[in-house]
Structures are given as C-alpha cells and as structure tokens.
Amino acid sequence: MEEKPDFIVVGAGPAGAAFAYYASSSGYRVEVYEGSEPGSKPCGWAVPVQIEKYVKVPGDTVLTEIRGFRVYLDGKLVHEHYGSLWGYIIDKRLFITRLLEGSTLYKRYVDISNPYSPRIGSSRLEARERVVLAPGLVGLPRAARETIMAVQQIFRTRDVVEEDVVEIWFDRELVGYYWVFPRSGE
Ligand SMILES: Cc1cc2nc3c(=O)[nH]c(=O)nc-3n(C[C@H](O)[C@H](O)[C@H](O)COP(=O)(O)OP(=O)(O)OC[C@H]3O[C@@H](n4cnc5c(N)ncnc54)[C@H](O)[C@@H]3O)c2cc1C
Questions:
Q1: How many degrees, rounded to 5, is the angle at CA 82 between CA 79 and CA 85?
Q2: Which atom belonging to ligand 1 lies closest to the Cα atom of 48?
Q3: Which residue in 11, 89, 141, 156 has the fewest CB atoms around it within 10 Å?
Q4: Residues 30-41, mean pLDDT to the nearest whole number
Q5: What top-level branch of life does the organism fall under (predicted)?
C-alpha cells in the first residue's frame, strides 16, 4: 500500500505554496494539488520587502526593485515617497515554483464541495497529519464565499516608465481602487 504523505495541500497560490514550503522545510512529506498552473491568478506581482523576514526572495525571481510610490485621489497626486526599498515586483510563477520545490506537485483539480472529504473522482485524499485547503476566494465552495470582482489589464508600452515606482489611484467615481505596477513580467 502506498504511504500517505504527511500533508496534502489543495491549491498552489501564495497561501498553499507558503504552507508547503514551511512544512517541507521542516521535514514533512507534502503533496500539493493544483487545478490550474501554480500562481496563475491575476496579480500585480508586488511583494513588500518585509516578506524576507519569513522567506528569502531568490534574486532570479526579482524583476524590479520598488523604491518609491505615488498615491492619487481623483487624478491628483496626494502622497509620494521615494528613496527606500519598498519591495519587489517578482516573477510570481517562478517564485511559487521555488516554494514548491520540496513538495510533490500534482496538476489535478480536487473536489472540495465537502471540505471534510476532498476527492479526486471516487478517491478520497488522505494525509497522515492534515489536508490543508488553500483554494483562494474563488475556489471556495459557493456557500462560503462572497464574490469580489477584480479586473487586471496588462498594457504593453513603448513609453518610458519609471520601473521602480508603483502608483495607486483612488477614484471616488469607482468602488475600490486601482494600481499601476510598472512591470508584471508577462
Ligand atoms: C488584480 C489583483 C492584483 C493583486 N496583486 C497583488 C500583488 O501585487 N501582491 C500581493 O501580495 N497580492 C496581490 N493580490 C492579492 C493576492 O492575489 C491574493 O491575496 C492571493 O492570491 C491569495 O492567495 P491564495 O493562495 O489564498 O489564493 P489564490 O492565489 O487564489 O490561489 C488558490 C489556488 O488554488 C487553486 N485551486 C482552487 N480550487 C482548487 C481545487 N478545488 N483543486 C485544485 N486547485 C484549486 C487555484 O487554481 C489557485 O491556483 C492581488 C489580487 C488581485 C485580484
């Protein structure tokens, strides 16, 4: 009979991948099930520098170092700050792949409609310690979530942009706000 892993993680977004990283670094055998591609959800790919208190951001995953930000309200600049390292724009897929290196990844969708009994087809997934559900907001069973709409648009431009500055725009005509990240890799 096949030995059960210590942990099974459903979902290889930042939460599932971080859990897998910590558990596998502590010597546990971890299997991760991801229904899509790890880290494929829309994202600005920005991480604050404080993340390095917990996990080193490998140099080859860093696309840009962010050294400033500007905040706009209704199109007017209301705050700006430059000069210190705020964080990074990273290649998120590569970063998540790195976090998963100590685990075994299966690109399979898991039926978690009964969260106490996650299944692939008729097989129930079982771990010696725990099954960890990290499906993100969108992957949660319908009854357990509210829907929050988010739109991501990636523009290619030939104009020169400041690569090390992030802009955050609030507009009272809109619910929510929007970011302008200088680079998101794709
Ligand atoms: C437009 C936008 C931009 C953002 N930009 C940033 C940013 O720059 N920096 C930042 O830190 N945060 C950003 N965020 C927030 C960030 O994306 C979320 O906080 C983060 O993705 C949550 O991680 P998670 O692992 O919980 O879920 P997710 O990232 O949603 O990952 C869940 C994973 O589980 C998989 N999955 C779901 N159900 C199943 C299933 N049943 N079986 C198998 N696999 C399953 C999904 O395919 C997915 O890969 C942004 C969010 C949005 C909407």
A1: 125
A2: 11
A3: 156
A4: 91
A5: Archaea
